[in-house]
């Protein structure tokens, strides 16, 4: 039976979130808190939490400060952000700090439950509806374009690896990538491992952070590969 902690300062939202979670995870044990200080106090007294759902606007921790403090104090604790902030940069920064997922407060119940199941199974969850942002078709060079050395590493990817990487930047899970590319999920994992090696990064999140979508889309266009569309 998983134990989840909801850390949000709005009682009505906590109640609504609890009801939604209980409908899909009827055997889970839910705890609640309204401040970072209270959360830390409870964590100091108990180490059996399976997942913390952390709001970014607690009264005593604004933005990603709370996540940063928790990661430093409880490095092994799975923490997911649940927030009204839908900025892609915020999502990727949270993941880079160590969050195991990011759930927009506007997400429907089905997406919430999918995210919880995925994270409780040890996977990272990214909201695909936000990660699938439009990609510019401009031929101008972006000011934050990858360095020549990274561009060379990008060129070292095979066509299939490039297609997998594009879908990683959109937040697609391995099962989705396998279905869209008509390959086995084990093959996707093999491609991801090769991508990490060739890009000289340690995780798929670092690969997403490193791969600028404009440059990636341009490279795919040069090879005649279509940019993936939502399914």
Q: Strands, helices and their partners?
A:
Elements: E1 3-7, H1 11-24, E2 29-33, H2 36-45, E3 51-54, E4 57-58, E5 61-62, H3 65-73, E6 79-83, H4 88-97, E7 101-104, H5 109-120, H6 128-131, H7 148-155, H8 159-169, H9 174-181, H10 185-199, H11 204-210, H12 213-222
Parallel strand pairs: 1-2, 1-3, 3-6, 6-7
Antiparallel strand pairs: 4-5
Helix pairs in contact: 8-10, 8-12, 9-10
Question: Summarize this, please?
Answer:
This protein has helices at residues 11-24, 36-45, 65-73, 88-97, 109-120, 128-131, 148-155, 159-169, 174-181, 185-199, 204-210, 213-222, and strands spanning 3-7, 29-33, 51-54, 57-58, 61-62, 79-83, 101-104. It has 231 residues and is an alpha/beta fold.
Account of the protein in words:
This protein has 231 residues and is α/β, with parallel strands linked by helices. It folds into two domains: 3-131, Rossmann fold (3-Layer(aba) Sandwich); 148-222, Winged helix-like DNA-binding domain superfamily/Winged helix DNA-binding domain (Arc Repressor Mutant, subunit A). It is built from twelve helices and seven strands. The protein has helices at residues 11-24, 36-45, 65-73, 88-97, 109-120, 128-131, 148-155, 159-169, 174-181, 185-199, 204-210, 213-222, and strands at 3-7, 29-33, 51-54, 57-58, 61-62, 79-83, 101-104. The strands form two sheets. A five-stranded parallel sheet has the order 2-1-3-6-7, with helices on both faces. α8 (159-169) packs across α10 (185-199) and α8 (159-169) runs antiparallel to α12. The longest helix is centred in the C-terminal third of the chain and has 15 residues, at 185-199. It is elongated, with a radius of gyration of 19 Å. Residues 134-146 have low confidence and may be disordered.
């Amino acid at each position: 039976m998983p134990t989840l902690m909801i850390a949000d300062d709005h009682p009505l939202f906590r109640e609504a979130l609890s009801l939604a979670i209980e409908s899909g995870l009827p055997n889970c044990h839910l705890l609640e808190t309204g401040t970072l200080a209270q959360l830390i106090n409870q964590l100091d007294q108990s180490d059996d939490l399976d997942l913390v759902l952390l709001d970014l606007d607690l009264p005593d921790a604004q933005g990603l400060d709370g996540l940063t403090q928790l990661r430093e104090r409880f490095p092994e604790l799975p923490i997911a952000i649940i927030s009204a902030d839908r900025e892609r940069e915020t999502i990727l920064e949270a993941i880079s700090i160590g969050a195991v997922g990011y759930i927009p407060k506007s997400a429907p119940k089905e997406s919430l439950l999918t995210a919880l199941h995925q994270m409780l199974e040890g996977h990272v969850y990214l909201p695909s509806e936000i990660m699938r942002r439009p990609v510019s078709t401009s031929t101008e060079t972006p000011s934050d374009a990858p360095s020549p050395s990274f561009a060379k590493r990008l060129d070292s990817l095979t066509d299939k690896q490039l297609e997998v990487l594009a879908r990683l930047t959109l937040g697609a899970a391995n099962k989705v990538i396998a279905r869209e590319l008509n390959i086995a999920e084990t093959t996707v994992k093999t491609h991801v491992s090769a991508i990490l090696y060739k890009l000289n990064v340690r995780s798929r999140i670092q690969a997403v952070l490193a791969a600028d979508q404009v440059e990636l889309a341009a490279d795919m266009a040069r090879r005649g590969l279509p940019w993936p569309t939502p399914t």
